[in-house]
Write a structure and sequence with these properties.
CATH topology of the largest domain in chain A: D-Maltodextrin-Binding Protein, domain 2
Structural class of chain A: alpha/beta
Radius of gyration of chain B: 24 Å
Helix content of chain B: over 70%
Order of helices and strands of chain B: HHHHHHHHHHHHHHHHHHHHHHHHHH
Strand content of chain A: 5-15%
Number of domains of chain B: 1
Radius of gyration of chain A: 24 Å
CATH class of the largest domain in chain A: Alpha Beta
Strand content of chain B: under 5%
Distance between the termini of chain B: 24 Å
Oligomer: heterodimer
CATH architecture of chain B: Orthogonal Bundle
Largest sheet of chain B: none
Helix content of chain A: 40-55%
Shape of chain A: globular
């Protein structure tokens, strides 16, 4: 019902807009957009845009972010795509690094420089933020009730024994959005402590999905109870009627979803019009539709939002705890992904076994304290938390070199091959988790 | 069989016809399979720093615990899937071909439907029914306080894969059973062989080509399959490892391609082993008078038992579709045995939005399947009947397509055809929809090829010799004698290729260049990426299943009628 109303409202807004747009030179022709966004979002914008600019035929190609980047890279020699439209700023960084984008400064006024602590637009103008999103925790209330679980509030809550085997996340190497969540925790708590938190939460994972959408999907259907997700997945699931709840923890980053014009775009004029359109008031309003539910970057739009709509420009606690450093993130991007995969994703069974043993020993020691047991338990926890590389090493271009795509020249020496490095890390994690489990079991024996 | 025009013409025009056909097929395979794949996998043999040839990456593969674990997991899952799939397929195939069974055609068609489970939603439906918090386990827990881990880890993969792929065994085995000469059975009976002994010693061995064809397909397919393990979040298997490597940003190391090479080699090995198992045995039967086994009536008690078995299997293998249907009518289905309420809304949405997807799919899948049976029949004939040197390689190369992950083929096509402009329009060739048809045809060629080969193995050479002795030309012999005798197998190949091409996603997703050219699987993918799209996605999935299922059923009816008219049956 409310969807139809919104539709009517959007249509009216568009009608008004088209009368003003008529003064400008009307763009026309085919406009090809490669996007990772769901149909709910793209078709809403498509309808609104085509009403405002009937001469432009919008072609939307849906690909996940990684496949979209690959597609642009593979087709660059004879490019047929005008716009790339996706969430993860990192994907745009990759395209920018490969020189596949072209700069454009949107004509729309009134968009602030930052949302939370994150800059909305690329400083070089290669891509522009059009909607903000934050990361948080989503859960299925029926599942929580059936399993008698309390609602979590902070990331650290997820490490509690009560959530063992109930939490899910998508792999950061597969989902740019999850990568940012992990990186946010690392930057917010520091490298060592951040990884400790990440691994303690990981000990409670039920599964690690390959697609970002796999997490909200599983929470919606009740396959698992709790998911670490980007806000719009939870908000739009809620709006579709699923019995799910969502919370932003204090340590979160509000990150813009972006759009960028592809280098040598066949229809540059229409591409620029589209960018301006989605940043304009009528374009931004589309974001408020229940099936979309993203945070507009144009603060004026919040006036039209429902009462409980999160507003990062007003609610200063939202996303400003961490001063997200893009450069730090960029320098260790692949290393963080590979570390997560090798230490967590592919060692999940060992990590879970160790975590289970630690939880049991902890519970037993709480009932029957024992100093030696406590010491053993602390050792076990440290064994789980310890990292094979330090923050400095992770940012070292030498190490990063093992993961990068291109050699700059044939003389560039890469000290180790990626597969070698990974095997080393995997063995490190496997041995440590086994040792941690043993120590925790000893501690448990002492508390009996 | 106008579909054979190409091969026939080429055979007719030049005297050494088989050679020309072989060259044409080789060219096709080279252009649309070998070149694109080599474009991608040569990375596996490249030193990352110097770009020189190296085998160090393969050493890394064998030194890596994760890859070795993945390797054994893949092997275990494939072998177990063959076992479970056989357990599902054998009773269905045997009961429906061996006995007077009401609705045998319907049962066989229903048995094929699992193959057309579209990606994404199949696993979603199975999770909703059999998952840890699915219908079955929620009910069990409420009433008995227990739960069964159907879908946990590798179990889940084996469960879903055997249900998904058992039709390969069913189709090929049924085709084989139908082709067994009744005289063989009658002679055995005259000699005093009955019951299970008759089945074990005479019927099953004679149907061996079909069974081995089906079982090897299941093994290879499960070994290479990507979608199911990924959707069940089982990542420590080979195909997901390759895919995760290849499709991640920033991780462009050679290991993904190394795994692809390992997959290809393993599939070829499996084929070689199955060929070895069949070697030195002659399965051809000469007489075609009494096609198919004698069907006998069952005693009432037997009939009840048989129906019970068939029903049980059907319910099990159709579970994903039952779940899908429920989902397509559901408002909200979350942590409950059944949906909260039902609605028709999703069908309305799909009806308005997705007509183009359906027509595109029908066009692409039928063209691809047609191409597959033409090439499949030709290769089978060349391999089994001609004496061309190196003819086995056509078979091996075509079958290797089975082992090429769809993503690799997709990227290979982009690399090979993107810079080639199309005549007249100047657009990139890779954007032309026919390229998508070729990709689908290559991906599904192995199914058709195995079916055609099995069919031809059962046609005795002496029938051809007889025809030629009576003055028929080679061409006439093939078109009037060989192909009609193979028709069951060719149809089986067409149906498998068509049904699976209709729901193929992984290569498609790389090659779709415009929405108006997109097939159904792409539409499903797009729907299933959002919470609100789940219902419409399921509805579109139901459309897909119904359309392809109807097609399958119709072709069965047609072929059965054709047989009856030729007096081969009854």
């Amino acid at each position: 019902m409310s969807r139809t109303l919104h539709g009517v409202a959007a249509a009216l807004a568009v009608l008004l807009a088209s009368s003003t747009a008529a003064f400008a030179q009307d763009p026309s022709g085919k406009l090809v957009v490669v996007t990772s966004f769901p149909k709910d979002l793209t078709s809403a914008f498509q309808q609104a845009f085509q009403k405002a600019y009937p001469k432009v035929t919008l072609e939307v190609l849906n690909r996940n972010t990684n496949a979209g980047v690959k597609y642009l890279q593979e087709t660059a020699s004879n490019n047929g795509t005008d716009l790339f439209w996706a969430s993860a700023p990192d994907a745009f960084e990759v395209l920018k690094g490969a020189n596949l984008l072209q700069a454009y400064k949107p004509k729309v006024e009134g968009i602030p420089e930052k949302v939370g602590a994150y800059p909305i637009n690329d400083p070089e103008g290669m891509y522009a933020g059009f909607a903000a999103s934050g990361y948080g925790i989503m859960w299925n209330s029926r599942y929580m009730k059936a399993n008698e679980l309390p609602a979590p509030k902070e990331w650290s809550d997820l490490a509690k024994p009560v959530y063992y085997d109930h939490v899910a996340i998508s792999a950061p190497s597969r989902s740019g959005t999850t990568h940012l969540t992990i990186e946010t925790i690392l930057q917010g708590e520091g490298w060592e402590k951040g990884w400790r938190t990440n691994k303690e939460i990981a000990g409670n994972y039920r599964t690690i999905t390959e697609r970002s959408f796999g997490v909200p999907d599983g929470v919606n259907s009740g396959s698992f109870g709790i998911g670490i997700v980007i806000d719009f997945f939870a908000l739009s699931s809620q709006a579709s009627g699923f019995p799910v709840e969502f919370v932003y923890p204090t340590v979160t980053t509000i990150v813009p979803a972006n759009i960028g014009i592809v280098k040598n775009a066949p229809n540059k004029a229409a591409a620029e019009t589209f960018v301006d359109f989605i940043l304009s008031p009528q374009g931004q309003e589309v974001l408020l539709q229940p099936a979309i539910r993203r945070l507009p970057v144009n603060p004026a739009t919040y006036a039209k939002a429902p009462a409980d709509y999160p507003n990062p420009f007003k609610d200063t606690s939202l996303g400003s705890q961490v001063n997200f450093d893009v450069e730090v993130s960029q320098a260790r991007y692949n290393v963080v992904d590979a570390l997560f995969d090798q230490l967590i994703t592919f060692q999940l069974d060992g990590l879970k076994a160790a975590t289970r043993a630690i939880h049991q020993a902890d519970a037993a020691l709480a009932k029957k304290p024992n100093d030696k047991g406590k010491a053993l338990l602390a050792e076990a926890r440290d064994l789980v938390a310890v990292m094979p590389v330090t923050a400095q090493e992770a940012a070292d271009p030498q190490l990063a070199g093992a993961f990068t795509v291109e050699r700059k020249s044939a003389t560039d020496a890469v000290p180790e091959r990626q597969a070698q490095v990974e095997q080393k890390w995997a063995a490190f994690a496997k041995d440590n988790y086994a040792a941690a489990r043993k120590k925790a079991e000893e501690a448990l024996a002492l508390a009996r | 069989m106008t579909s054979l025009a190409l091969t026939r013409e080429s055979i007719a025009r030049v005297r050494p016809g088989p050679a020309v056909a072989a060259v044409l097929i080789a060219l096709f395979l080279l252009l649309f399979l070998v070149v694109p794949v080599v474009q991608v996998i040569f990375v596996a043999f490249q030193d990352k720093t110097t770009g020189a040839f190296t085998l160090i990456n393969f050493a890394d593969f064998f030194r890596n615990d994760l890859f070795m674990r993945s390797f054994w997991n893949s092997f275990y899952v494939s072998a177990m899937s063959v076992v479970v799939a056989s357990a599902l397929a054998l009773p269905l195939a045997y009961l429906t071909t061996r006995f007077e069974f009401r609705g045998a055609v319907l049962i066989q068609s229903l048995g094929i439907i699992p193959l057309i489970m579209p990606p994404f939603i199949g696993a979603v439906a199975m999770q909703l029914l059999f998952g840890r918090n699915g219908t079955v386990n929620l009910l069990l827990r409420d009433h008995f306080g227990i739960s069964i881990p159907f879908m946990e880890g590798l179990n889940g993969v084996i469960f879903v894969q055997s249900i998904h792929y058992f039709p390969f065994i069913l189709i090929n085995l049924s085709a084989s059973l139908k082709n067994i000469d009744r005289a063989m059975e009658e002679s055995a009976q005259n000699l005093g062989c009955h019951g299970f002994r008759l089945f074990r010693r005479i019927v099953f061995p004679l149907a061996m080509p079909g069974y081995v064809a089906g079982a090897s397909l299941v093994f290879i397919k499960v070994f290479d399959d990507l979608g199911t393990p990924l959707l069940l979040n089982v990542n420590d298997m080979l195909a997901p490892q390759a895919y995760l490597r290849i499709s991640s940003i920033g991780i462009a190391d050679p290991m993904g391609y190394v795994i692809s090479v390992v997959l290809i080699v393993c599939s070829l090995l499996a084929l070689w082993v199955s060929a070895l198992a069949m070697k030195g045995k002659d399965y051809a039967t000469v007489q075609r008078g009494g096609g198919g086994l004698a069907r006998r009536r069952m005693k009432p008690l037997e009939l009840v038992a048989a129906y019970a078995v068939v029903l049980l299997i059907l319910v099990l293998v159709l579970a994903p579709h039952i779940g899908l249907t429920l989902l397509s009518f559901a408002t909200i289905w979350s942590f409950s045995p059944f949906p909260d309420a039902f609605t028709m809304k999703h069908y309305g949405t799909v009806f308005l939005e997705s007509g183009q997807y359906i027509t595109n799919t029908l066009l692409y899948a039928s063209l691809a399947a047609l191409l597959d049976v033409v090439i499949g029949t030709a290769i089978a004939y060349l391999v089994l009947r001609s004496k061309l040197p190196g003819r086995q390689w056509l078979d091996y190369i075509a079958m290797a397509a089975l082992a090429v992950p769809g993503v690799v083929l997709g990227i290979g096509y982009l690399r090979s055809f993107y810079d080639v402009p199309m005549p007249f329009t100047g657009q990139p060739l890779s954007g032309f929809w026919l390229i998508l048809v070729f990709a689908l045809a290559i991906r599904r060629l192995p199914y058709a090829l195995r079916a055609c080969t099995a069919a031809l193995q059962q046609v005795s050479n002496s029938l051809e010799e007889a025809a030629e002795n009576l003055g028929a030309t080679k061409l006439r012999t093939i078109s009037r004698v060989v192909v009609p005798l193979m028709s069951g197998g060719i149809l089986a190949g067409f149906v498998t290729s068509f049904a699976t091409a209709a729901v193929e996603l992984s290569a498609t997703i790389m090659l779709v260049h415009s929405q108006s050219d997109a097939p159904l699987a792409y539409g499903l993918y797009v729907y299933m990426q959002s919470a609100a799209g789940r219902g419409p996605g399921a509805a579109l999935g139901v459309f897909a299943v119904v359309i392809v299922g109807l097609g399958t059923y119709l072709s069965h009816v047609i072929i059965e009628r054709g047989r009856r008219e030729r007096g081969q049956d009854h």
